[in-house]
Design brief:
With 370 residues, this protein is α/β, with parallel strands linked by helices. It has helices at 36-48, 82-88, 120-123, 144-158, 160-184, 194-217, 238-251, 285-288, 291-313, 330-338, 353-361; strands spanning 2-11, 14-20, 25-29, 67-75, 90-97, 100-101, 104-105, 109-113, 116-118, 129-132, 227-232, 262-269, 278-284, 318-322, 345-349, 365-369. Helix 5 (160-184) packs across helix 6. The radius of gyration is 23 Å and the shape is globular. It starts with a strand and ends with a strand.
C-alpha cells in the first residue's frame, strides 16, 4: 500500500498540516524543531495505532486542545489508472483525546477506516511501516526491553493472535505480580496463583514460538557483514514455575517468561582484523564490534524487519527514515539508500545534500521544505 495524503490537526506543533505524496520517495527538509519527526510519528500511528515517542496520549495533542486528528489516504500500489486509484483509496483516521471531549468521557484513541469506527486490531491491518530513527542505534547495546519491543512490533502488526496473546500475557503478568506480593505478605494463599500461572504458560508459549520464527527468518536476509542471533529465551512451564515459585514469592515479581527474553547479535569478523578474516566462533557484536559495526548490526535488524513484513503481508512496507542518514557512515548510508528502490519512502533531514543522495538512487523524488 502507498500513502497518498496526510492531514494533521492539533497534532503536536502542527495546528494544521496537509501533505500529499505522489512520488516513490519524499524528502522532508528543515531545521530542527519544525515537526519533521512528528510527521513520521503520525504516519506510524496510522499503521500501528501507537506512538513510538509518546508515553502518554496527551503529549501528542497541541496545547489547550481537546483532540488531535491524523488522517491518511492509502491506495493499493497495484492500481495504475486514476479511476482505479480513487476507487481503491482507503481513508484512515486516528483521533487522540485527553479522555474528555466537551465534558464527556471518551476513549483516549479512536480509530476509523473509511469513516467507520474500528477496533485497533482491525485498524492496523491496512498497511505496514518500518521506522528507522536515531534512537534505534541503541538496539544493540540498549536495554533488553528495547529489543523485545523490536520483536513485538512487526509480529503484532501481521499476527493478530500474537497481538492478543501479548496483551493477555501482559495483563496476566501484572495481576500475578500483585498476587505474589499478597502471598508474600500472607494476605492470600499460594493457590490464587494457579489460574494466572496457566494463563502465562498458554500465551507465553505462543509468544516464544512466533519470536523464534521471526528470528529464524533473519538468516535469509543477505548482508555484507556475516550476522547471526542468539535468542536468549526465558522458558515458562509448570515445571519452571514450580522451580522458581519460592523466589518469586519472596521478591514479589515473576522471574521467568517471555517478558525476560532477549537476543544477542553475533558476527564472525575478528575485531581489529581484515573484514575477510572470519572467526571460528561468532562473537557478540555489542562487546567485540566497533561502533561502526554495531550500527551495521542495527541496519541489518531493520532490513530483517522490512523483509519479514514484506514476506508475511505481501505488501512492501512504507520506509520512514527520520533524520537517520546523518548518524551513519558512507557504507551504511549507501546500504540504507539502496532500500529506497523497493517501495515508497519518506525521509526527513536537516541536510539539503540528502536530496541529491536520494535522487542518485530513485529518479522520482518529491521535496517538501518545512
Amino acid at each position: 500500500m502507498n500513502l497518498r495524503s496526510l492531514e494533521l490537526t492539533n497534532f503536536r506543533n502542527h495546528q494544521t498540516r496537509s501533505l500529499t505524496f505522489h512520488q516513490p520517495s519524499t524528502v522532508i527538509v528543515g531545521p530542527n524543531a519544525q515537526g519533521k519527526t512528528s510527521i513520521i510519528e503520525a504516519i506510524a500511528l496510522l499503521a500501528t495505532g501507537n506512538s513510538f515517542r509518546a508515553e502518554k496520549v496527551e503529549e501528542m495533542i497541541s496545547f489547550n486542545q481537546e483532540i488531535a486528528r491524523i488522517k491518511g489516504g492509502i491506495e493499493d500500489e497495484r492500481h495504475t489508472s486514476q479511476e482505479e486509484e480513487d476507487e481503491a483509496e482507503t481513508r484512515l483516521e486516528v483521533i487522540l483525546t485527553r479522555g474528555m471531549v466537551q465534558g464527556k468521557k471518551t476513549a483516549l484513541r479512536l480509530y476509523s477506516v473509511n469513516d467507520v469506527r474500528r477496533r485497533k486490531r482491525e485498524f492496523t491491518s491496512n498497511f505496514a511501516t518500518v521506522v528507522f530513527r536515531p534512537e534505534d542505534m541503541r538496539l544493540i547495546e540498549g536495554s533488553p526491553s528495547r529489543r523485545r519491543d523490536f520483536l513485538n512490533g512487526p509480529l503484532c502488526l501481521i499476527d493478530k493472535e500474537y497481538d492478543r496473546a501479548l496483551t493477555t500475557y501482559d495483563q496476566a503478568l501484572q495481576r500475578r505480580n500483585r498476587l505474589l506480593q499478597q502471598v508474600r505478605d500472607r494476605e492470600q494463599p499460594a493457590t490464587v496463583l494457579t489460574f494466572w500461572n496457566l494463563t502465562l504458560i498458554k500465551h507465553g508459549e505462543y509468544l516464544v514460538q512466533q519470536r523464534r520464527r521471526f528470528i529464524e527468518f533473519w538468516s535469509s536476509v543477505e548482508f555484507p557483514l556475516p550476522m547471526s542471533v542468539d535468542y536468549n529465551v526465558s522458558p515458562i512451564s509448570a515445571e519452571r514455575i514450580a522451580e522458581y515459585i519460592d523466589r518469586e514469592i519472596a521478591s514479589g515479581h515473576t522471574l521467568i517468561g517471555p517478558h525476560k527474553d532477549d537476543f544477542t547479535v553475533l558476527f564472525k569478523v575478528k575485531p581489529g582484523a581484515d573484514p575477510s578474516a572470519v572467526s571460528v566462533e561468532p562473537l557478540p557484536i555489542s562487546a567485540y564490534g566497533s561502533r561502526g559495526q554495531q550500527r551495521m548490526a542495527v541496519l541489518w535488524l531493520k532490513m530483517c524487519e522490512f523483509a519479514f513484513l514484506e514476506n508475511r503481508s505481501g505488501q512492501t512496507p512504507l520506509l520512514l527514515l527520520d533524520d537517520i542518514l546523518s548518524e551513519l557512515d558512507n557504507d551504511s548510508r549507501h546500504k540504507v539508500l539502496s532500500l529506497l528502490k523497493h517501495g515508497q519512502s519518506i525521509i526527513t533531514t536537516t541536510e539539503s545534500r540528502v536530496v541529491d543522495e536520494v535522487k542518485a538512487q530513485v529518479n522520482q523524488v518529491e521535496v517538501v521544505e518545512l
